[in-house]
Amino acid sequence: CCKDKYFVKKLQAIRETKEDKQTEENDKSCGWNLLENPSSSIPARMYYLVSLFFVLLYLLALTLNTLPSTAGYDDTGRQIDNPKLILIQLICVTFVTLEFILRLVFSPNKWFSPKNAWMKI
Q1: Cα Rg of the chain, angstroms
Q2: Are 112 and 95 in contact (CB under 8 A)?
Q3: Which of 27, 6, 41 is nearest to 106 (CA)?
């Protein structure tokens, strides 16, 4: 009598644990598809375009920072980097760093995720 109740409760707990794991895996899979597969959904495509925008903006700011006409000058007259372009670069690097962390979190294969994420960057 008590043994049967115990096994029924144990089976219910196991089923609930499996359902929770499946839900968690589905959430991670959805996040990974958002980051990795732009063709999987409209939000994934939008994220891809935003990510591409930040990369191109970073490259543009980096290139413009090398031109003498966009550079600033300090008190002694030496050429320094334009502070506005440096801020743009900082924002872009922050975005790419957050994307890298999200890729590590949502990666389906945790063992190889740093290698794969580094290859993406």
Answers
A1: 24
A2: no
A3: 27
Q: Are 35 and 99 in contact (CB under 8 A)?
A: yes
Amino acid at 73: Y
Q: What's the rounded Cα separation, in Å, for the pair 101 and 94?
A: 11
pTM over 0.70, yes/no = no
Please write the tens of the pLDDT for every residue from 3-31: 666 666 766 666 666 555 555 455 557 77
73's enclosing H/E stretch is strand 72-73
Q: Which residues pair with 79 in a beta bridge?
A: 73
| Residue 33: per-residue pLDDT | 80
Calculate helix-pair angle for 42-64, 2-36, nearest 10 degrees.
50
CA distances from 121 to 13, 51, 57, 71 (A): 42, 11, 15, 28
